């Protein structure tokens, strides 16, 4: 542990993100590192006393059985302030409450976070201030570049953490070990041997009261533009010399720069749909268009697919499809690498010869390698076998890893400014095609696997 931050200020402390994700992650970090000293200050719109805030923190900490000296010290000293964080005077007051080097975590809607960044330019900034922002980072190339410029007026790039908690998932980070520590995989990790890659993140959860954010974002921006593009970059990058922040983020950025919509044709290479009324595990769900807070005229998609190509020597010609959907009948969180078929199967072997498939599962963490082998009955007949390894859910919460990077001044697991812009650049043609209705908005019943006319992935 190399502690850099002494005070964590959470803006938007009374929101769901703080109680559900940030505080449990922080609790796990403090339990594992009892020597860490940290002051926690919450700021939000709710009329809470310090005692009410402390109960929120305590309840969230209890979710992960937090204990130890660091936990007890933080709980004893944590404070809450009702504040308008877009006001320069109130920002000055909050920063003045911090001891030592502070970090601000923006648990706020993107538009509000951007306004706070602008307001901070009129406030005296403490030395070493760290800024942590949730996605989406901007709403297109221009706004992402503009926000980068505003942040650069405040602090250096290495003091900005654009949070993508997927990069804190142990499975995604373990891709590096799978690829680069096992000679059996890396020599085959290219277009000569791999036919296609699918990254799928489908969930059974529906809107769950998030219309205020989700109806202006949709599946494409919520999941693909940020999370899944980052996963793809880790899958496709060249071997970094080290896992240091510069080497790792340079390698991901080079992948994103080379990424284009498949065939430069967003109409043929993307699909969108939204769920209608249906049933999942006995629970009746209304149509997305009828959910509270949804504006049907926006035509927000709840299921999105985009096929991309990384135009490098390693990946030229390999379709990489990213998909994410809500209210789908079966939860699927997996990376599927389909290898090319065997060049020649000897005459005499019977049965179906199918390509080797490597599946990397996300939450719970597991891996399977599907191969053809000689059957136990007839030695001349090929049968399918699966070699499996299960890693469990991982010991560390994603936000525990994210917060460790923020507090210790290591932005490795964050998204660099240029990569945030590239995410918007890659998907700009798709967004334009969808806005012009060049790609139809299909429908699927909640609890189904998607529109019946779509070809299944994986």
Compact overview of the structure:
With 458 residues, this protein is an alpha/beta fold.
Low-confidence runs (pLDDT<50, min 5 residues)?
A: none
Q: Tell the overall outline.
A: globular
State the secondary-structure class. alpha/beta
Strand proportion: 15-25%
Q: Which percent range fits the helix content?
A: 25-40%
Describe the biggest sheet?
10 strands, mixed
Number of strands: 19
Q: Span from first to last CA? A: 40 Å
Tally of individual helices: 12
Report the mean per-residue pLDDT as an integer: 91
Rounded radius of gyration (Å):
23 Å
Looking at this protein, list some descriptive labels.
alpha/beta, seven-stranded mixed β-sheet, 34% helix, 458 residues, 19 strands, 12 helices, ten-stranded mixed β-sheet, 24% strand
Describe the protein in words.
The protein is α/β, with parallel strands linked by helices and 458 residues long. The protein is 34% helix and 24% strand. It is built from twelve helices and 19 strands. The strands form three sheets. Strands 7, 8, 9, 12, 13, 14, 15, 16, 17 and 19 form a ten-stranded mixed beta sheet that branches. Strands 3-2-1-4-5-6-18 form a seven-stranded mixed beta sheet, with helices on both faces. It has a two-stranded antiparallel sheet with strand order 10-11. A hairpin with a 3-residue loop joins strand 15 (357-361) and strand 16. Helix 8 (211-236) crosses helix 12 (417-435). The longest helix has 26 residues, at 211-236. The protein is globular and about 80 Å long.
